Task: structure prediction
Amino acid sequence: MVRFTVLASGSKGNASVVTGGQTRVLVDAGLSCRELFRRMKDAGEDPAALDAIVITHEHSDHVAGLAVTARKLGIPVYFTEGTHRAWMRWLQPRRQMTYKQWMEQCRQQAAAREAGDGAAETEEQEVALDAAAETPEAPDPTAEPKKAPAWLPAVEYFAPGTPFRIGDIAVSPFTIPHDAADPVGFVFEAEGARLAVATDLGYMPPNVKEQLKSLDLLMLESNHDLDMLRDGPYPWSVKQRVLSRVGHLSNDAASGFLEQEYDGQATYVILGHLSESNNLPELARVAAERALASHASLLANRLLLAEQHTPLETICF
Ligand SMILES: [Zn+2]
Ligand SMILES: [Zn+2]
Result:
């Protein structure tokens, strides 16, 4: 049997569980480990039976509980290399120094040395070490757990566009337009069922539309109502970010895709990543229902709304 459970969806945390054959995979870990386990148990899924965690991107609403969960279960985490590096930088922030500042510091130290200041020598060595730390080289993920906040039991890299397999589940990661290092959506296939997760995307580019065909389940972002966002509480800069082509998909954009380009194959369409500030579930639902009702062939699609605070009923195939 193939099962899909949304544990949480929205800007305060995202996580889902895909089960196929003997394999269970957690998709994102954007809640605390304790809350993830609690919700899994509520949904009838055993956390100890998880085989792996796959990560869409490094934003905190997708990785907040990642390190603790992976360590507690001793399971591998699948990232793109760019996402893994960005996640490690997020956990181990380093003092930022621009090249210009570094040059200026070197110049001052050279001047101090010229002036015969003996202390400058050791200070320069420290700066050299610091400068090396500023390079994109990531910290060693295999370092001791207590010393490295980003330590994980095992890390596996995948590349967008290159399918891979975790046990009985085939995973196809695809690039999504979003303001993260290397964000992806996923298509999961097991026992003949195809499930897609496509949230956190600024718009629907052709490669994403291509992936969202012949699905049995589609989880699609329906983040905001355009009017609510425009009139809502967010500062202008944040509004611009959400609206941008690397922000989030509006109700209109999601329903536009469903109406005009979606093939209608999925038994279930789940609207996800709804904003609590700039959307109402009813607005998202009405927009999607109207889109699905515009084609008789889409009326068989069951529409569900993923929630932030409670798991969605488990869907089985
Ligand atoms: Zn998100
Ligand atoms: Zn994001």
